[in-house]
Amino acid sequence: MADKKLPKVNVEFGRSGDKPDAKKLRGMVCNPIYAGVGPYPQLIEDETWVRSAARMIAEEGSEQFLVNMLFVLREALKESD
């Protein structure tokens, strides 16, 4: 399994004031910060985030979702520095 490459990120990290598009909206779905992780306020209910994330996992696969989630978390935490 170590020889298999991970999928490429297929979402974008949306910043405040950005015009939302499909890639940015999908990036929001896989970003748990919107559910109130860490010092960030909760902007979406847990149930809504979990169900949206589960749907994305079912559609794209767990590896793709995790690659995307790692990307958006890194971008969000970069913004908070």
Would you mind describing this structure in some detail?
This protein is an all-alpha fold. The chain has one domain (about 25-80). About 50% of the residues lie in helices and about 0% in strands. The protein has 3 helices and no strands. Helix 2 (about 45-60) crosses helix 3. The longest helix has 19 residues, at about 60-80. It is globular. The relative contact order is 0.20. The mean pLDDT is about 90.
Characteristics:
0% strand; 81 residues; mainly alpha
Q: What's this, in brief?
A:
With 81 residues, the chain is an all-alpha fold.
| Derived structural class | mainly alpha
- Rounded mean pLDDT is 91
Count of runs of 4 or more consecutive helical residues: 3
Helix content: 40-55%
CA distance, first residue to last residue: 35 Å
Number of domains: 1
- Please describe the biggest sheet, giving its number of strands, its sense, and whether it closes into a barrel: none
The succession of helices and strands, N to C, reads: HHH
Q: Radius of gyration from the CA trace?
A: 13 Å
Q: Give the DSSP E fraction (strand runs of 2 or more residues).
A: under 5%
**Overall body shape:** globular
> What is the strand tally?
0
Question: Low-confidence stretches at least 5 residues in length (pLDDT < 50)?
Answer: none
